[in-house]
Every structure is written in structure tokens, then in C-alpha cells.
Amino acid sequence: MAGSLLSLEFDRSSVTRVRHLVMVSAQEAGLDGIVLEDFVLAVHEAVANAVRYGSPPRGIAMWSEAGSLVCEITDKGPGIPAEVLEREEPATRFDFGGRGLWLMNRLADLAVRTGIDGTTIRLCVALP
After folding, report:
1. Which InterPro entries does the annotation name (predicted)?
2. What is the pTM of this model?
């Protein structure tokens, strides 16, 4: 991790604190405006999904490397079902959930590693 900005474990009670730390760290890295807002929202979606669907320990790490800001969110849950990963459109407005990964993919560069041992979501955005 070239320029480590943030690294911690989180749970349901710390989601708001994590969002604030991500915002401050991303600002310090140089993001601002809509790019900052989009990145923070994408990270928040990943954190919320880890709390909702994953199991402890849940972690977040953020760093800068090669002109990009990178954030990884991890959990030890059961993994993301294939039908969720393959969905090209968000769930309908009547479905509960089903928009997080779709939204993350539109707000940042998204990479997902998932399986029975847990999930890692990597979100990247170019630094100015």
C-alpha cells in the first residue's frame, strides 16, 4: 500500500464513523466535488452490504497508488450469490435491496472477489 490512509475493522455501530473517515481521507488524498461524493457513496454501499450480508471480521483499508485512490472492504461472510453478481440491471423499485453492487459499479472502478470464505470489494477512482 503506497500511501495508506485508513485501515480498521467495523461493525453496524460504526458505519457512520467509517463513512466520515472515508470522506476525510478521500479529501486529504485530493478528491473533491462530485467525484468525492460518488466515491464515498460507493464505499458506503460496500460497507453497508458487508454489515448486512457479511460476517465479522469486517474491514476497510484505503490507500493511494499509481494515481488512484483504492478502497477495499472485506468480510468473512458466505459470499455473493452468482445471480446477484450477474445482474446487469438494478432490482426493481419493489425489491428490497439489490442495488448496491450495481451502484458501486457505476460510481467507481469495481472489482469483486467472493466465495465461501468471504468477500472483498475493491473500489478505485483516479486522483486529480
Report:
1. Anti-sigma-factor_SerPK, HATPase_C_sf, HATPase_dom
2. 0.91
